[in-house]
Write a sequence for this structure.
């Protein structure tokens, strides 16, 4: 179903010789590759180097404790369900 009968009028520009052999595109891709090649690596050697964390980092798993120092687990089982490695099991 067409909404309109008007056509788009496009002007086709003739390519220059350099554009027709894709030299600008090749040099642009090469410059991006070289820029990433000399960029600082994001990989760290994990056990030897520790990553610096911000003070508001929320990835630390902590089991809450009550006033007497006992673990405050409600045995809801959400930790066992959400563990991707299935390292947490509920017993009992």
């Amino acid at each position: 179903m067409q909404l309109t009968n008007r056509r788009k009028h496009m002007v086709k520009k003739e390519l220059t010789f350099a554009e027709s052999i894709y030299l600008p595109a090749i040099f642009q891709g090469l410059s991006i590759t070289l820029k990433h090649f000399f960029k600082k690596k994001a990989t760290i050697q994990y056990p030897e180097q520790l990553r610096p964390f911000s003070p508001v980092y929320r990835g630390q798993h902590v089991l809450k404790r009550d006033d007497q120092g006992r673990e405050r687990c409600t045995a809801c089982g959400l930790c066992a369900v959400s563990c991707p490695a299935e390292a947490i099991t509920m017993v009992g």
Summary: The CA atoms of residues 32 and 84 lie 37 Å apart. The two ends are 64 Å apart (CA to CA).
